[in-house]
Specification:
TIM Barrel; two-stranded antiparallel sheet; globular; about 260 residues
Length: about 260
C-alpha cells in the first residue's frame, strides 16, 4: 500500500496537528459568509493548514488555495432549500477529479445508523478502494445518523462512528466533540488514525468553541476542521488566529481568546 504522503500538506511537521477550514457548505444550503470566497481564503491562509472545498471552488480559486492542503469533498446531499431534504449523502466525485484540480486529499460523509446507511458505506468503501495505491489520504466525516443531528452525538455513538470510519480504512476521521473530555479521550486513544473535530453550525459563543477545541486537543485530538464558527465569526481572521494558537501553540482557551480582542 502506498504511503499517504499527501498528509504532509495538512499536518504541521512540528506539532503533527492540523487546522483545516471547511468552506464546502455552499452546495447544500444558502449560507452567509462565503460571498467573497477568494478574499476569505487569502485572509485565513496564515492561520490554517488546509481548506475543505467542493470542486467548483477548487477550480475557481486554485491560485488563492496554492500553498495550502486542499481536500476535495466527494459527496453531497439534497439541497436544504424549500421542501427538499438535505438528509443523507451520495458520492459524486473521486480520485480523478481530485487529481484534475490538484487536491491533496478527499473527504466523504459517513452516517452510521442512517436509513440509507448501506449505500453510504458502499460509497465510502469504493472511494477508499480507488485510492489505496494513491498518495491521497481519505478523510471520513463520520457522524451518527446524519449531518447536524447533534442530539444523537452522544459519546458512545461518536465512539462507534470513529471506529467504523477506521475500520472502513479512513486515513483521517473527522467527527464531533461530544463535550465529555474523558469519553473523547477513550475515543482518540482507540483510534489508530488521526481524529479531528468539526465545529458545526455557528454557535455565536466563541469562547465555548475555544474551550471545546482546547479540551479536545488536550486529550489527543489531531486538530480541527472548523468552518462556520470561523468565517461567520464577527472577525474571522481573529477567530482563526485563536484556534491556530490552541492547536499549534498549545495555548489555553483563555490565552487564545486574547486574540479575539
Amino acid at each position: 500500500m502506498t504511503d499517504k504522503t499527501n498528509l504532509k500538506h495538512f499536518f504541521h511537521s512540528a506539532t503533527n496537528r492540523t487546522v483545516m477550514i471547511p468552506i464546502d457548505h455552499g452546495m447544500l444550503l444558502p449560507v452567509p459568509g462565503l460571498e467573497d470566497t477568494g478574499a476569505l481564503i487569502k485572509a485565513l491562509k496564515p492561520y490554517c493548514d488546509g481548506f475543505i472545498v467542493n470542486l467548483g471552488v477548487a477550480r475557481a480559486f486554485a491560485d488563492e488555495l496554492s500553498g495550502k492542503g486542499v481536500v476535495l469533498r466527494t459527496d453531497t446531499g439534497n439541497t436544504c432549500i424549500e421542501n427538499s431534504n438535505a438528509d443523507g449523502s451520495f458520492r459524486i466525485y473521486g480520485i480523478e477529479e481530485a487529481k484534475a484540480v490538484g487536491a491533496h486529499a478527499l473527504m466523504n460523509m459517513t452516517f452510521p445508523g442512517h436509513p440509507r446507511e448501506m449505500t453510504n458505506l458502499i460509497d465510502c468503501a469504493n472511494l477508499i478502494s480507488d485510492c489505496l495505491d494513491e498518495p491521497h489520504p481519505i478523510m471520513l466525516e463520520s457522524l451518527p445518523y446524519g449531518l447536524g443531528k447533534g442530539w444523537d452525538y452522544t459519546p458512545e455513538k461518536i465512539h462507534f462512528s470513529m471506529r467504523l470510519a477506521c475500520e472502513l480504512g479512513a486515513d483521517v476521521v473527522k467527527t464531533a466533540y461530544p463535550g465529555d473530555k474523558e469519553a473523547f479521550k477513550r475515543t482518540v486513544d482507540e483510534a489508530y488514525v488521526p481524529v479531528v473535530i468539526l465545529g458545526g453550525a455557528s454557535s455565536g459563543d466563541q469562547e465555548s468553541v475555544l474551550r471545546d477545541v482546547a479540551d479536545a486537543i488536550s486529550v489527543g485530538a489531531a486538530g480541527i476542521a472548523v468552518g462556520r464558527n470561523v468565517w461567520q465569526a464577527p472577525d474571522p481572521v481573529k477567530m482563526a488566529k485563536a484556534l491556530h494558537a490552541i492547536v499549534h501553540e498549545n495555548a489555553s482557551a483563555d490565552q487564545a481568546s486574547l486574540a479575539l480582542d
